[in-house]
Design a protein that fits this description.
Layout: H1 9-22, E1 35-39, H2 51-69, E2 73-77, E3 79-80, H3 84-97, H4 107-121, H5 124-132, E4 142-143, H6 147-162, E5 166-176, E6 181-183, E7 188-204, E8 207-216, E9 227-230, E10 244-246, E11 253-258, E12 270-273, H7 279-288, H8 314-327, E13 331-344, E14 352-361, H9 364-375, E15 380-382, H10 386-395, E16 400-401, E17 403-404, E18 414-416, E19 422-424, H11 428-439, E20 450-451, E21 455-456, H12 459-462, H13 465-468, H14 479-484, E22 487-492, H15 497-511, E23 517-522, E24 526-527, H16 544-551, H17 553-561, E25 570-571, H18 574-595, E26 599-600, H19 607-632, H20 636-659, E27 667-668, H21 669-686, H22 691-701, H23 723-746, E28 754-759, H24 767-774, E29 776-781, E30 790-794, E31 797-801, H25 809-834, H26 837-842, H27 845-873
Helix pairs in contact: 1-22, 3-4, 9-10, 9-15, 16-17, 17-18, 18-20, 19-20, 19-21, 19-23, 19-24, 20-21, 21-22, 23-24, 25-27
């Protein structure tokens, strides 16, 4: 095979991905092997690949490729999420561009547009993942609204309802005025804001000259005030007992209630109570039977119930009401205030707490086994620090608001009856049968029933993902669910630990009585080199496909993984991709070097090559053991770095140099075979991280059968390692480096043969390796080194290189005398410290010992320099 002078990823990557697909290497069916299963965190169906996806899917691909090579039946299931809020917003936006309002359309017509959008955009991100090298079983691609997943969701809703865990009721929810839907607590992001605190005057009824002052950050909500609360232990307000105050501008008389909920120290000690628009006020309203006035329309404008500013936007009203309060003499003051404001995660608008009729799932019972399994490490988190985050949320879990006021999603299978009440059923036909049974009215028809307009929270489908992907809800005992479940590893971001991870664990124990996965690997957030989160608005997020085009998928994968420790943010710099590309080139050039050697069947194996083969075999074994251990601990970045150093430093810089034949000389067949074997092992170690170049070179390494692939070749296994040999060879490297350093200092050409003199203990079994790498003519043990020699220490042994004509005696004497002056001064300062009794008595023993070592080293160096000066001065 002719090898190109440069590696071109564009020529290689598409070719091998097609080859893998054509030969079905990604496919998995249950068999007798140990299964290894990963389910993809389903990206939004309308999404495109971003850096977070790149990192997450690179990690998954590394794990699944390694599992295949370990002989496991690896199954990586891909799919997408219907993303109710995000997708509906995009469809509404596109319709608006065409001059169509959602309100003008029937549900059926709107859903046609939504499905059109899905068909148009739905497969983009999965196709993009192929460019990355993702080895998913594409035949298993699922969608959270496909038939199997939809049936699963409806079945689970009905089951939980029948168990009494799903209920319907008016509760305070987080309302998104832009998406026009309720949100769960987890979908609200709190941001620090510079706000204002407004101090308002509430006049005391029938005492118009007297008032109390109430502080609020939301003056517009006074339109819904139904009480003012003070602490019964606050002496300032004891006189208010049983009195009423007048809500400013609204002129509504509301009662004073007394409750210890109010913090005497906070603000003025008076709290306005708006039960319809604050969670805590709602609880007070329930306790004291206060009316709740909902002053907001769904879109955040003032409703008729607000009586003033009807139809105006809430933030415009805030500005206007402040002016009106001031004009009426009812605004005491306004001051700057820092507070946290809740924003919708999806639309980034300020949420409104709002009383709303919604569907809820009771969480307390579901949370118990899910909490225990993580805390006792049945399910392991990597890094483990996220266990505390998980525990805190699970111990304080609230009922989950599962209904959304959207059309795109799984419609709630509840059907309202003409006379009131409702039934829950999988289909309208089953609902009719239930309705007739419930009411006894046999004249009822399907037309008499009205299905709930709301759909379910998107997470209500994806919490079933590890089960529903194998149809474990509809067919609980099928062969696939029994084989692939529980899955092995989940790779996800810590930002969805509550949305998704915790809920999948709950669903797993509820529907399979077993964990859904054994390990959770939390990735960090990909940030730019300034530490900022990547975003479109900042323009600091590179296009992943453009990076792949420029550096190759292997280069980008490596660049991401070099700085991606589990759970820690990744400071991404494009220079990392360049480093990845350079490593590709290093591998390519090493291969070209090896394949360029002429092989001799009769040439004897040099001793230097025998030493190299023996040494590298042990270094390779040690690295295999290290990599296995790092993978067991999910320290993938460190595993990659260990293989990188093995290839770049040990194999390329040392091994290949040791075995490389002389100029225009052939290599012996045994050394060549060993080198090909080592290169093969290195490619297999690297393959999970860099799949494309490793396949290209592995195929070219030897003659391959038609259907072979590195993908399914066995991962190298650890065998016995001689650590003493490795340690001894590190000294060999130091000796060679010492000679090379002298060449550099004295400007001696590499091709010039030198001699090496040894004074002290030395292992001669490596001499041929030293001779070759340092280009030495002789290696000899001496009692007295040559007068012209330049020396260095390795451990306690002195090595000297006689310089002969390569030395300027006068310059060398000056240099040695300068060094001698410095060392004598240094020795004097150390001796002074050690002669100080206070220092020796009070300093830590290890510090005193360190100073004594400095003293001994300086004395030894002075002696060596003095001997060198004496020799040169003869």
């Amino acid at each position: 095979m002719e090898i190109a002078s440069k590696y071109n990823p564009q020529e290689v990557e598409g070719k091998w991905y097609e080859y893998w697909m054509e030969h079905g290497y990604f496919k998995s069916k249950p068999d007798g092997r140990e299964p290894y299963t990963i389910v993809i965190p389903p990206p939004n169906v309308t999404g495109v690949l971003h850096m977070g996806h790149m990192l997450n899917n690179t990690i998954q691909d590394i794990l699944v490729r390694r599992a295949r090579m370990k002989g496991k039946n690896a199954c990586w299931v891909p799919g997408t999420d219907h993303a109710s809020i995000a997708t509906e917003a995009k469809v509404v936006g596109r319709l608006a561009e065409q001059g169509i309002s959602k309100k003008e359309l029937s549900r059926e017509d709107f859903l046609k547009h939504a499905w059109d959008w899905k068909e148009e955009h739905g497969g983009i991100i999965l196709k993009q993942l192929r460019k990355l090298g993702a080895s998913c079983d594409w035949d298993r691609t699922a969608f959270t609204m496909d038939e199997t997943r939809s049936e699963s969701v409806i079945k689970v809703f009905i089951d939980l309802y029948e168990k009494g865990l799903i209920y319907r009721g008016v509760r305070m929810v987080n309302w998104d005025p832009k998406a026009l839907t309720a949100l769960s607590d987890e979908e609200v992001i709190y941001k620090e804001e510079h706000s204002k605190l407004y101090y308002l005057r509430y006049k005391i009824e029938e005492e118009n000259d007297k008032y109390i002052v109430v502080a609020t950050t939301r003056p517009e909500t006074i339109l819904g005030d139904t009480a003012v609360c003070v602490n019964p232990n606050d002496p300032r307000y004891a006189f208010l007992k049983d009195k009423k105050v007048i809500v400013p501008l609204v002129n509504r008389a509301v009662p004073i209630i007394m409750d210890e909920y109010v913090d005497v120290e906070f603000g003025t000690g008076c709290l306005k109570v708006t039960p319809a628009h604050d969670v805590n006020d709602y609880m007070l309203g329930e306790k004291y039977n206060l009316p709740a006035i909902d002053i907001f329309n769904d879109n955040g404008t003032i409703s008729e119930a607000g009586t003033l500013y009807i139809g105006q936007d809430r933030f415009e009203v805030r500005k206007q009401i402040t002016l009106d309060l001031e004009a009426a003499g009812l605004l005491e003051k306004a001051e700057s205030y820092e507070n946290k404001v809740g924003y919708s995660e999806r639309t980034n608008v300020v949420i409104e707490p709002k009383l709303s009729m919604q569907w809820f799932l009771k969480m307390e019972g579901l949370a118990k086994p899910a909490l225990e399994s993580v805390m006792n490490d049945d399910i392991r988190f990597y890094p483990a620090k996220f266990k505390n985050t998980y525990r805190h949320w699970m111990e304080n879990v609230k009922d989950w608001c599962i209904s959304r006021q959207l059309w795109w999603g799984h419609r709630i299978p509840a059907y309202f009856l003409p006379e009131g009440g409702f039934v829950v059923a999988e289909t309208a036909e089953k609902a009719l049968a239930s309705a007739i049974e419930k009411t006894g009215n046999k004249a009822l028809t399907i037309a008499d029933l009205r299905q709930d307009e709301d759909c379910l929270d998107t997470w209500f489908s994806s919490w079933l993902w590890p089960i529903s992907l194998f149809d474990g809800i509809n067919n609980p005992d099928n062969a696939e669910i029994n084989y692939y479940y529980p899955t092995n590893d989940l790779v996800t971001g810590p930002d969805i630990i509550f949305f998704w991870v915790a809920r999948m664990i709950m669903a797993g124990y509820e529907y399979k009585q077993e964990m859904p996965f054994k390990n959770v690997y939390f990735t960090g957030i990909v940030r730019d080199k300034l530490g900022r989160k990547m975003s479109k608005s900042l323009g600091n997020s590179p296009d992943p496909l453009a990076l792949i085009e420029q550096y190759g998928a292997d280069g980008v994968r490596m660049g991401l993984m070099l700085t991606a420790p589990a759970g820690n943010d990744i400071p991404f710099d494009e220079a990392l991709c360049e480093q990845g590309r350079n490593f590709n080139n290093k591998i390519w050039n090493a291969f070209r070097l090896i394949k360029g050697w002429e092989v001799s069947e009769s040439a004897e194996q040099p001793e230097s090559a025998r030493i190299a083969i023996n040494w590298f075999g042990h270094v390779l074994n040690k690295t295999i053991a290290e990599v296995d251990d790092l993978f067991d601990k999910y320290r993938l970045s460190e595993a990659l770095m260990a293989i990188y150093k093995l290839f770049w430093d040990e194999f390329s810089s040392w091994y290949l140099e040791l075995v490389k034949p002389g100029y225009q000389q052939p290599i012996d067949k045994d050394t060549y075979a060993a080198t090909l074997n080592y290169f093969d092992a290195l490619l297999r170690l690297l393959h999970p991280f860099m799949p494309f170049i490793t396949e290209e070179l592995w195929q070219a390494l030897t003659d391959r059968q038609k259907n072979e692939s590195i993908m399914v070749s066995p991962m190298p296994k650890e065998s016995a390692t001689d650590n003493n040999l490795i340690t001894s060879f590190e000294k060999v490297k130091e000796i060679i480096a010492g000679v090379r350093s002298i060449r550099l200092q004295k400007n001696i050409p590499n091709k010039e043969l030198l001699s090496l003199q040894i004074a002290g203990t030395h292992d001669h079994s490596f001499d041929e390796a030293i001779r070759k790498m340092a280009n030495l003519e002789t290696i000899s043990v001496v009692t007295e080194k040559d007068a012209t020699a330049a020396a260095f220490l390795v451990g306690t042994t002195e090595y000297a290189v006689p310089l002969g004509n390569n030395i300027d005696v006068a310059a060398e004497l000056k240099k040695l005398n300068d060094e001698l002056v410095y060392l004598r001064g240094f020795l004097k300062s150390v001796a002074a410290k050690l002669s100080n009794e206070k220092f020796v008595a009070n300093a830590k023993p290890e510090i005193v010992e360190n100073e004594r070592k400095k003293q001994a080293d300086a004395e030894s160096k002075i002696k060596t320099i003095e001997e060198s000066i004496a020799s040169l001065s003869k």
